[in-house]
Structures
1.
Amino acid sequence: MTETPHSENGPASAEVRAQVEQFRQTFDRLKAEIHKMIVGQDAVVDGVLTALFAGGHVLLEGVPGIGKTVLVKTLGDAMHLSKSRIQFTPDLMPADIVGTMVLDEAAAGGSAARAIRFQPGPIHANVVLADEINRATPKTQSALLEAMQERQVTVGTDTRKLPDPFVVLATQNPVEQEGTYPLPEAQLDRFLFKLLVGYPEEHEYDAILARTTGRDLPTISSVTESGEVDAMRQLVRDVPVPENAQTTAVRLVMATQPGSPYATDKVRQYVMMGSSPRGAQALILAGKVQALREGRFAVAADDIKRFALPALRHRVLLNFEGLGDGVRADDVLLDVLERI
């Protein structure tokens, strides 16, 4: 049975109920279309779509060959959005990503006419796959900072807006460390979520092999376009956040900070640096998307807690003792969730 949407001031209007229902249907259709190609990985697909409609970027961590690139391609096809792939390597330069000014020679009236024009880089797309982002040098990684935060790039003295919507889905291999450059904390903080992409379950292999080794690949239909995505993002921003939900988000973030009165013993022992306020922003935005998915026009505290791991795991920096004891950021966050 569909739950009647509510705002923090009571039942929502008929117009709001219609918008919430439209959001739910589009989200579910998009998810179903992606699952025509992607087998399993429900939490990853949910996380990517939640980040998309929250207006954020996603860092996907997992070993090669488990469908990260296919997920990005399928997402672009299902949303009728432009997509591009950047293969990060140690010799990649910032201009290879954002674009550069080139000399254009054209015949004009029998004489050579020369002009300087801008050649856009692959960052100028709606959905950008930054494949193995940690293989590029920090100088090149930083080329994404302005794009991810400001939705624009600066080349020389010119600033150029990026397409709207714009989302970066970056991947990295958690095992292979040779020839890699760990992402600086400032860039990690720009990702709304860090999602861990695991191995498929045994019962999922049959479907994976059937879809990828046969003659006919699944056909992905476009179920939405950029204008509707923008409208859904605006609806997310309009969802009210009651005081108890916002307090939950604030205290979760503060609990990851060693000097905070809400910090747990495990945080004080193992954490060198906790989440920034961007962590609270990520929790609130993700909670708004989840509320709409469940037919509500107000965020609940459980919506906030649901996204604590993907929103905060890359914002918690462990100290040497934590690294030496094999503690994971998820272990610290699960301890925080039990106490907040």
2.
Amino acid sequence: MESNIDMKALNEKIELKSQFIDDIYKELEKVIVGQKYMIERLMIGLLSDGHVLLEGVPGLAKTLTVSSLSQAINTKFQRIQFTPDLLPADLIGTLIYNQKEADFTVKKGPIFSNIVLADEINRSPAKVQSALLEAMQEKQVTIGDKTYPLDKPFLVLATQNPVEQEGTYPLPEAQVDRFMLKLKVGYPSDTEELEIMRRMAKTGDKPKLKSVIEPEKILEAREVVNEIYTDEKVEKYIIDLVFATRNPEKYNMSDLKDLIDFGGSPRASINLNLAARAHAFMEHRAYVTPEDVRFIAMDVLRHRIIPTFEAEAENITTEDIISKILSTVPVP
């Protein structure tokens, strides 16, 4: 450990500042059964200022989880149903002519919120997708000749339905790369589904969530996440994992060379580092371990590796490729 970092003081600070994580989990358990995988990664996105793409069949509580999270942290929440006839103005807002004043006034769109759920993002045409992705990247929106900053924290959680592809507009690779994480949300276990059925079979009022933290505390937590110590060996491990997606033959994985068309971009290294730090914070730790990196690697790399036709012909998925890299690249 570096001598100029007081690890004891940093550990105490992290312990204190990360207490709200457990409170959020307890609150979400009132309405969400299971889905620990999704909740943990949404928290990582929130703490590291990264947007999240959720892929899963309908009915897996994606919308409920996101809206419940926004209640728990007392932020503004907007759900936008993406459809083929949606226009960029429906998302970011537009100028409206005021006859009384003989002037144009700005009507802000639903993007002006803290947590935005873009439901079925692949249902809308490219113009709308690019308007959303510009807001994600720049954290601002231009309406007419004026630019408006978006509120902080600002987080986009977009969902994709992998089943129906008819009449959809798949996100281009360059745009998918702007999402920090891509999650594959699966079905609940039989015991979880039994509990879901019992809860949802009751009519009447559903449990009300109370906010356990204010948005300002999330911004403070992000500053603390930046202080988390990452050893040089762990940083080198992150670089090795990403470079193994580009030049697998240098890491004794020549068999992957013909299966990968494009490897992870520099965004993969940056986001892997940020997400690993956020996970360490959630574990109330002041330093990053290789296990933090491995914990989140699949979700950071999944959408950044483009397999070749050969890989697809052999039914080899990006998950298979990432698993092979994780099991081959030496862990420090």
